[in-house]
Amino acid sequence: MPKLNVLVAGSTGYIGVQLIKLLIKHNNVNLKYLCGNSSVGKNISSYEKKLSSKKLPKIIKYKKSLLKDIDLIFTALPNGEAQDISNDLFEHNVLIDLAADFRLNKASEYLRWYKQKHRSIKNIKRSIYSLPEVNGKNIRNFNIIGCPGCYPTSILLPLIPLIKKNLIKTNNIIIDSKSGYSGAGRGVHKKYKYKNLYESISPYGVGFHRHNSEIQQEISKYTKNNFSFTFTPHLTPMFKGILSTIYVDLNKNVSVSKLEKNLINAYNKSKFVKILRINSLVSTNDVINSNNCFISICKTKYKNRVIILSAIDNLIKGGAGQAIQNMNLKFRFPINRGLQ
Amino acid sequence: MPKLNVLVAGSTGYIGVQLIKLLIKHNNVNLKYLCGNSSVGKNISSYEKKLSSKKLPKIIKYKKSLLKDIDLIFTALPNGEAQDISNDLFEHNVLIDLAADFRLNKASEYLRWYKQKHRSIKNIKRSIYSLPEVNGKNIRNFNIIGCPGCYPTSILLPLIPLIKKNLIKTNNIIIDSKSGYSGAGRGVHKKYKYKNLYESISPYGVGFHRHNSEIQQEISKYTKNNFSFTFTPHLTPMFKGILSTIYVDLNKNVSVSKLEKNLINAYNKSKFVKILRINSLVSTNDVINSNNCFISICKTKYKNRVIILSAIDNLIKGGAGQAIQNMNLKFRFPINRGLQ
Amino acid sequence: MPKLNVLVAGSTGYIGVQLIKLLIKHNNVNLKYLCGNSSVGKNISSYEKKLSSKKLPKIIKYKKSLLKDIDLIFTALPNGEAQDISNDLFEHNVLIDLAADFRLNKASEYLRWYKQKHRSIKNIKRSIYSLPEVNGKNIRNFNIIGCPGCYPTSILLPLIPLIKKNLIKTNNIIIDSKSGYSGAGRGVHKKYKYKNLYESISPYGVGFHRHNSEIQQEISKYTKNNFSFTFTPHLTPMFKGILSTIYVDLNKNVSVSKLEKNLINAYNKSKFVKILRINSLVSTNDVINSNNCFISICKTKYKNRVIILSAIDNLIKGGAGQAIQNMNLKFRFPINRGLQ
Amino acid sequence: MPKLNVLVAGSTGYIGVQLIKLLIKHNNVNLKYLCGNSSVGKNISSYEKKLSSKKLPKIIKYKKSLLKDIDLIFTALPNGEAQDISNDLFEHNVLIDLAADFRLNKASEYLRWYKQKHRSIKNIKRSIYSLPEVNGKNIRNFNIIGCPGCYPTSILLPLIPLIKKNLIKTNNIIIDSKSGYSGAGRGVHKKYKYKNLYESISPYGVGFHRHNSEIQQEISKYTKNNFSFTFTPHLTPMFKGILSTIYVDLNKNVSVSKLEKNLINAYNKSKFVKILRINSLVSTNDVINSNNCFISICKTKYKNRVIILSAIDNLIKGGAGQAIQNMNLKFRFPINRGLQ
User: Fold this and answer.
1) D193 has a pLDDT exceeding 60
2) Which of the four pLDDT bands, split at 50, 70 and 90, describes residue B193?
3) Any idea where the Semialdehyde dehydrogenase NAD-binding domain is (chains A, B, C, D) (predicted)?
4) Which of A7, A338, C104, C302 has CB 3.0 to 4.6 Å from A26, enough for a Cys bridge?
């Protein structure tokens, strides 16, 4: 089978390690280079003992010349660094970014939310934001691919089909999300050091989390209505998983079963998005260690209000798994290769 | 110091044990009888080793004649059982119920939500629902006292003052609550046995949790407006604590700082309700092992929408601690005795 | 590819569900019947939403006639029930038991530790205890296969090669094991209901846990010395994983590196047992969600004493994975099929 | 009531915060200065919201002149810093150190285990190591008091009385300890960043943890026999608590009940050390949030071997609580003041 030569930049973060664990099982991938920073010279197995039986290259420092031998580079780096790498790309390279560098279409928005100037504005235009089930169609025309954030993945998958078909009100959406602490990266402990993250639930970024901009941008593509929503993330005392509880008002004459049918239709060909029966109580546990997104619609005591539950594994469907799904789309591999 | 002779019925549940742990430190309490069911004949210390150094009476079966020697009985029993005991009361007895038997004013509502006929309708009328900071004033006129549920405590404390003064819209309130699993009682494991409750977050009772009725009843006392709200509880992988994230729209010309002042005024004499600075990120960890309720108001990107965070320890302020607060009120003990 | 028709008895316990999750990925398996008790008529997906996308047979009641169509039956039942089923077997059936019914060679030992008479003594003799890396060779001669317990798996794998070659003292071995609570089955909450299992560590079965007998029996096969050991299991606040910390004294003139070499040799062909470098700090996290056993030898300040660390996933290598490994051995499938 | 003027140096670590939470309830304490480093200028409540209702001094930088107004200084600082402060002490000052600076009697041992030269050797001689139940008697003669480490506290309390009376063998003691991760301080996340500390159990410092030296030193005071032991600490996925499982061989003609009586006698006047009935299964949960140490002796299948279980709250009896106990002893306050 033909194999892509692959480089992973940012091998030792939670997402990087998860990515490597998935890529070593993918038949079309040859993991040629693993790049890191403080980890240069070490084996990835010293970051994850589970990888100790695999023969993997040592971690090296990234430099442009490595890209010559490479078909595909994954970047799982702090925000800003994939931009610089994108300026190094040769014609034959494909870059899939798992951070936020190619999520926002406008450099001004990037500056506003990420507090740094974008250093590769020309490449923003050459990139595609790809939530594979939704925006994946045109991916073959692009060599720079931005993967959605973890929260937006859990939120956009249920909302886009409903908003596209004008089934729900777009001016009063409340999104209350709960994430395992791995979502905040290995630095979470430093960032929240006066919280007992492990036996306590804590909201953060209330009203102003960065993912607001991404959700706004993507939803706006599918509606001309004013779109306003309130999004609150919470750190939950568990390692992995995101549950988004989304409060939505129906448009006139729209029934709950119409909502359900719409979602089923939207995802009937998807291998990963599952619409459960109405009123199913989705837990993060249902999707952990898989690339699935489980969605259910729950009735309330008000006819015109429903609660949508949406759960993913933040490191897989919200991170490494989704990136591989984008690779499969881009290179026309079977969509679930490496993800079963 | 004069001491009340106290009986605890339902000594061995999570709430019962917590109650005993607090009562043994209360200077006005003589723990005369501990009652149980399958635990009869045992020592309470076999349920909680922390109590092993205290000399406490053995657990016995409840019977009416015990009430003769008793000033005060606490009932921490399955719903329905406090009703029967209330029919046994002598004139000199006070009953404080920690379950739901004396929360709802209408027997029909009780039947609807708890699926059983109320067996002491006459005593409903003779009882008071007492959230001490809000309804406590008249408690001295009643001998049967119903304590609020854990979720409603965290929800009513911030909402009632705002609704009373007509500062927020009452027709679009979203309440997303997260509770440690002790809130579901020792039976939680049986009830949710196919969930991994300890490394996963799960919604439950979506749209139709019993506490809806209690919240509806209590808020309606303070407004003539139509009051409509959506409440979703979640089981969170931690033992104790409730965080309610409440989404609220302001009435015209009401500022966030007006909201804040209103709450500060409402609770400036309270020893237990603390209004934190605007945008404070309240965690359950901040209130665990105390009788406190911490509340903060957070701004969103929309001027007229705020998020209210409210956290309590479900077994203390949402259970045993609040019951003791009601005892202190009823018997004119200092309000924080036994609760520091 | 030829497929075995497989029946799983006890589909809905932790081990049963884990077994089904692995079997559906095994190319030689056709899951023909899933059997249960209180779950009859339901879909396995109502016990594990992750299985909801697979077409699996409904849960039915076990009866002898089902065995006609079946090549292989897995029993993951309460102790005692596999015995009865073993009495139903046809000549062509293979039974792999994941409980304790075919672990002990002597019915008297079974009675002593499991407090019930063995109901199929003749089948004990026709069965093999198979820890695949150690006793697997003769498995093809037997149609009833007993799988080791979870604790013994983590303990026997490091100890047997060392004892066989007479490298360590057999009269002073201390084994301190820590397990996630899934090891105690879904009933753990009832059994330990006055413990807070989720934020606390608790020893149990101190001095007298049932697995003592199995360890004693197996080790004794490899040494004529008196074998005496002390084994203490602990419930640890995590869902899965076992770590055994084993304190061992070396025989005269035996060096730590000799120990290491011996273990490396013993398992150099094993796909699942990995001997890490001396002094490696093995965590349960290193093996979770895999069929691996990770072992390391750690030096102490005393030349003749070492600490052996051994970690497995109790539901996989200590349960369902090992059972599949035994199936692969018995039917000559590649040893790691379905287990990668 | 007369009040001591107290300074806390190292206010914002886990131990420092716990200490302040206890001291504010102590009737003989006036918290005059809180000192910190990066936290200078802040309120302690920004590190622990539970302290937000108390009027406490702002955090300032420590300097010698502060000691003029002070009766007692607690140091909860990184190892090495209390030494420097001890060189500043005026005659009237008492220093209680919660780190390791005054635990080891020999500067050479300090250098060996803590990898730094001791900078106040003269003060080592003027200091006392005080495990209050054991070495507390002479505390009034010393103005510098070293508090035991958390692991040693849980280990020395059961072992010293048994060794003093020559009831157990001193050459084959195995100590397997399990601690919540708060025991490793706020820096634990950085130190163990490639471990998933929160859903996994991990041994560390195997064979060579620093507390070895302290245990060795203290036990050697009570026996002339050779004392050799193996101690392994483990990080357990819970916030607080230590359980030590100690494997011990009895001397000839010593019965288990003799052991029990000896321990009961040794601690019959202690308010905090409780000897439970033989074979009691002690969990960390039994002692959390208290200054208690719970000890039980468990039989094994070997007459001459027992397992001793010992549990404490590492931040209280293993830290701040024990420091306050030492203060109460030193200043002749009731021993349990501030610790109930």
Assistant:
1) no
2) low
3) 5-142
4) A338
Q: Which fold has domain A151-314?
A: Dihydrodipicolinate Reductase; domain 2 (3.30.360)
Nearest residue in chain D measured CA to CA from B53: D274
Q: Do D201 and C298 touch (CB under 8 A)?
A: no
Is there a contact between A189 and D194 if contact means CB atoms under 8 Å apart? Answer: no
B151-313 folds as Dihydrodipicolinate Reductase; domain 2 (3.30.360)
Which run of H or of E encompasses D23?
A: helix D14-23
Contacts of residue D196 in chain A, CB cutoff 8 Å? 239
> Taking the CB of residue A117, how many other CB atoms lie within 10 A of it?
12
The DSSP annotation for C278-323 comes to: TT----GGGTTTSS-EEEEEEE-SSTTEEEEEEEE-TTIIIIIHHH
- With beta carbons under 8 A apart, name residues in chain A contacting B239: 199
Which of B17, B50, B182, B198 is the mutation pick for testing C, counting most C CBs within 10 A?
Answer: B198
CB-CB neighbors (< 8 A) of A212 in chain B: 301
Q: Which CATH architecture has domain A4-125?
A: 3-Layer(aba) Sandwich (3.40)
User: Residue D230 is nearest to which of C195, C204, C305, comparing CB atoms?
Assistant: C305
Mean pLDDT of chain D: 93
Name which of C195, C243, C305 is nearest D285 (Cβ-Cβ).
C195
**pLDDT at residue D189 is higher than 90:** no
Helix D14-23 × helix D321-330 angle, to 10°: 50
D91 touches chain C (CB under 8 A): no
pLDDT digits (tens, 9 = 90+) for C297-322: 999 999 999 999 999 999 999 999 99
Predicted confidence (pLDDT) per residue in A302-318, tens digit: 999 999 999 999 999 99
Whether B35 sits among the annotated catalytic residues: the reply is no
Domain A4-125 and domain A151-314 have a common topology? no
0.90 surpassed by complex ipTM: yes
User: What are the structural domain ranges in chain C?
Assistant: 4-125, 151-314
Mutant choice from D49, D276, D339 vs B, greatest count of B C-beta within 10 A: D49
**pLDDT tens for residues B166-177?**
999 999 999 999
Testing the interface with D: which of A194, A197, A199, A238 to mutate, by most D Cβ within 10 A? A194
Cβ contacts of A174 on chain B, cutoff 8 Å: 174, 176, 247
Residues 6+ apart with CB under 8 A from A50: A21, C286, C287, C290, C292
Within chain B, strands assigned E span 4-9, 29-35, 59-60, 72-75, 94-97, 127-129, 144-146, 173-180, 202-203, 229-236, 242-249, 273-275, 293-299, 305-312
Chain-chain contact of A50 with C340 (C-beta, under 8 angstroms): no
**pLDDT at residue C190, rounded to an integer:** 56
B3 vs B333: CA distance, rounded Å? 11
> Cβ of A236 and B241 within 8 Å?
no
- Range D275-304 average pLDDT: 94
Dihedral sign, Cα of residue A63, residue A69, residue A75, residue A79? positive
- The token pair at A299 is 């009735």
Burial of A340 per CB tally in 10 Å (0-12, 13-18, 19+): exposed
Contact of B25 with chain D, judged by CB distance below 8 Å, is answered with yes
Residue B193, chain A, CB below 8 Å: the answer is no
Report how far residue D176's alpha carbon sits from residue C244's, in angstroms, rounded to the nearest whole number.
Answer: 11
Token pair listed for A42: 């070490």
Query: In this complex, do D190 and A189 lie within 8 Å of one another by their Cβ atoms?
Result: yes
Q: Encode pLDDT of A111-122 as tens digits.
A: 999 999 999 999
- CA pair distance B101, B78, nearest whole angstrom: 9
Query: Are A245 and B230 a contacting pair at CB < 8 A?
Result: no
CB contact at 8 A, D326 and D339? no
pLDDT at A190: 56
Cβ contacts below 8 Å, chain C against chain D, sum to 143
